[in-house]
Amino acid sequence: MEKLRLAVVFGGKSSEYPVSLHSAGSLIHSLHKEKYELILIGISENGEWYAYDGDIESIEHDHWLQEQYCTPCVLSCSTHFKGFLKLKEDGNYEQIPVDCIFPVLHGKNGEDGTIQGLFELSGIPYVGCGHMSSSVCMDKEMTHIILEHAKVPCAPYMCIYEEKDMDYKKIFESAKETLGLPIFIKPANAGSSFGIHKVEDFYEFEESMKDAFYHDGKGKVILETTIEGFEIGCAVMGNKELFAGSVDEIETAAPFFDYEGKYQMVDSHIYCPARISKELFEEARSMALQAYRALNCKGMTRVDMFVTPQNTIVLNEVNTIPGFTSTSRYPTMMKEAGIEFGDLLDKLIALAME
Question: Can you give the pTM of this predicted structure?
Answer without folding.
Answer: 0.93
